[in-house]
Design a protein that fits this description.
Shape: globular
Number of helices: 17
Bound molecules: flavin-adenine dinucleotide, NADP nicotinamide-adenine-dinucleotide phosphate
Distance between the termini: 22 Å
Structural class: alpha/beta
Radius of gyration: 24 Å
CATH topology of the domain at 3-157 and 396-473: FAD/NAD(P)-binding domain
Length: about 550
């Protein structure tokens, strides 16, 4: 280890406007990045738009918000001490518990002094002569840095649909991704929820228990598997902690960043086994709960007929749960294959529609016409409401990046560069934007994985890269246009071999009117992806140009 690596400096030791690195965002990605940069002895500062750290887990405080990756896996692996000392109380941690955990990590590594809260980065411009980025914020800060690292999140740009009349609504309304921190009392109120994605599916059962009446406005029904959340089994915790390193190794080498128990069938086609065998396999996964369902057979993600056996299993479960057959049918997804929109995990979602105080409004038959002062007006009726919840999703993967005026060589704008869809090499860097990194950017496994595994991999790759540049006296790294094009072709080819392009999902940009229809994440799996990133680094950062 060289001297500069041994002597961490903090931003406060440097002139306030002259940094080695600016990190944008202080969620799981930005915080770990800051920690690694400190370890490299670099002067780094993070800017965070929120008034607190935590990213997703700071913003999304809606009733029922929790993880759907098991707590023992959805946690940092970089510190053996932290993973041993932290105790998760439930199989799937709640938003509040994850936020406590993130704050614990930030305090343990004393990260807060280098984070500027309530400060949004609005522009960042590369100065080709100085070889530095100038970063500007909405508070008037203007700092320069050699490197700029975007840890802005894939699901951080909340989206309210453009429904006419919202400004006339006399009641209260919120987006799930910007939920009031003081909490809201829904007891005895007439509540409407627009949307039936993962956020809504978590919130609806909890809101239904509090509200006088809940109206659920559904445009597209989703597939949801029971989460089977429960207090964390102490035996499971002991087993994991006895050899946490092995569990993490397996997760890193896996497809999705977490490992589900291996079964005989998971390497086979769903169509290669007898219907009774298939049903038993699905039942076992359903009983176990959680997102591992899609690993029941090898071809659920690539073969429509195989997928339909699983989709029909779900629809049968919905029919068996929901007493009103018309409501059950309206809740049954038929327009996209299972898993091509992110699978949801719930705690009593379908059962909620048996409650007398819950009404499903099928927007396929009666679309929303407007929001009025009293509530939601569809082509069928007006629904008077006191409170309206937008569980309407995010401008995913590119929204937070495009919100910043990012300008690279010759003033080229990232927004313009991505006008036809995002392009990046490894999801890490964009040609013509030297020394600018994106953590879990488009073209990387990111949202198709246990995201903390992908975040750690990117942070560590970037930190190693910066150490390499410094050790070899390079001042800049940049993706080549050829490497970027070849990588995007690879991402597209893999995506096209799956069923994902068949759905109007946010993976495809289809939830945002006018957004280019491009399958944005890399579907080859986190293990294979990591291997490629490591090989590229080992080959002297092949596909990148390094300049002295
Ligand atoms: P974020 O947590 O989104 O943090 C990015 C931060 O950057 C935000 O705080 C934002 O305010 C800030 N920011 C953005 N732009 C700017 C700017 N211009 N200036 C300053 N600050 C800026 N993933 C899973 O793997 N498993 C799950 O179970 C899971 N559950 C989820 C539940 C919800 C409700 C949501 C919305 C997402 C969930 N995710 C889940 C995905 C989740 O986003 C990631 O797991 C992870 O938290 C992302 O961390 P991050 O630091 O990359 O981004
Ligand atoms: P989402 O999956 O994009 O769902 C948004 C919902 O709003 C969809 O049902 C959508 O319908 C609906 N909608 C949007 N605009 C509408 C309009 N104009 N009229 C009617 N309905 C409209 O968003 P999300 O639920 O917030 O989840 C986003 C992602 O965050 C998830 O996929 C997941 O990755 C993550 N997340 C995870 C968890 C978890 O369980 N851990 C919880 C929440 C979120 P259409 O489908 O018809 O567009």
């Amino acid at each position: 280890m060289s001297d500069w690596q041994r002597q961490p400096v903090t931003a406060s030791a440097r002139p306030a406007n002259d940094l080695d690195v600016v990190v944008v965002g202080a969620g799981l990605a930005g915080l770990y990045m800051l920690h690694r940069l400190r370890g490299l002895g670099l002067a780094a500062r993070a800017y965070e738009a929120g008034r607190g750290i935590g990213g997703t887990w700071y913003w999304n405080r809606y009733p029922g918000a929790r993880c759907d990756i098991e707590s023992l896996d959805y946690s940092y692996s970089f510190s053996e001490a932290v993973q041993q000392e932290w105790h998760w109380t439930e199989r799937y941690a709640s938003q509040a518990e994850i936020l406590r955990y993130i704050e614990h990590v930030a305090d343990r590594f004393d990260l807060r002094p280098d984070i500027r809260l309530a400060t949004r980065v609005i522009a960042t411009t590369f100065d080709e002569v100085a070889g530095r980025w100038t970063v500007e914020t909405d508070r008037g800060d203007r700092v320069t840095a050699q490197y700029c690292i975007m840890a802005t999140g894939c699901l951080s740009a909340a989206r309210i649909p453009a429904i006419p009349g919202l400004e006339t609504f006399a009641g209260r309304w919120w987006h799930t991704g910007a939920w009031p921190h003081e909490g809201v009392t829904l007891t005895g109120r007439r509540v409407g929820v627009i949307g039936t994605g993962s956020s809504a599916i978590q919130a609806i059962p909890v809101i239904a228990r509090r509200a006088a009446h809940l109206h659920v406005f559904q445009r597209t029904p989703n597939f949801s598997v029971p989460a089977r959340n429960a207090p964390l089994d102490p035996a499971d915790e002991r087993r994991a902690k006895a050899d946490y390193a092995a569990r993490r190794r397996e997760a890193r080498a896996s497809r999705a960043g977490f490992v589900t128990p291996a079964t005989e069938q998971m390497e086979r086609s769903a169509l290669a086994v007898a219907p009774a065998v298939r049903r038993r396999a699905y039942e076992a996964r359903w009983e176990r709960g959680g997102l591992g369902f899609t690993s029941a057979f090898a071809d659920l993600g690539s073969d429509l007929a195989a997928n339909d056996t699983a989709a029909e299993f779900f629809r049968a479960k919905i029919r068996a749960t929901v007493r009103d057959p018309l409501v059950a049918e309206a809740l049954s997804p038929r327009d996209h294959p299972l898993g091509t929109k992110r699978l949801c995990a719930d705690s009593g979602y379908y059962e909620t529609f048996n409650r007398p105080n819950v009404t499903l409004i099928d927007l396929r038959t009666t679309p929303i016409a407007a929001i009025t002062s009293r509530g939601v007006l569809t082509s069928g009726a007006e629904y008077p409401l006191d409170d309206l919840v937008f569980a309407s999703g995010f401008d995913a993967m590119t929204g937070a990046l495009r919100a910043i005026d990012i300008r690279g060589r010759a003033g080229v704008s990232l927004r313009e560069r991505w006008a036809d869809g995002p392009r990046a090499y490894l999801g890490l860097m964009v040609a013509d934007f030297p020394n600018l990194f994106t953590i879990t950017g488009p073209g990387s496994p990111s949202v198709l994985s246990n995201m903390i595994v992908s975040i750690e991999q990117h942070v560590e790759w970037i930190a190693d890269c910066l150490a390499h540049l410094r050790a070899h006296r390079f001042r800049a790294i940049e993706a080549s246009a050829e490497a970027e094009a070849a990588w995007m072709a690879h991402v597209e080819e893999l995506g096209n071999a799956t069923l994902y392009p068949l759905a109007n999902s946010w993976y495809m940009g289809a939830n945002i009117p006018g957004k280019p229809r491009v399958f944005m994440p890399y579907v080859g799996g986190v293990g294979a992806y990591r291997q490629q990133c490591d090989d590229i680094a080992a080959r002297g950062y092949a596909g990148f140009s390094l300049t002295a």
